[in-house]
Amino acid sequence: MLIKLILFVVVAFVVYKVFGGKFPQIGDNIKQKVAKKEETKKAEENTLVECRQCGTFVTRKEALEYKDWSYCSKECVNTAKKGQE
Question: 52 with 70: CB under 8 angstroms?
Answer without folding.
Answer: yes
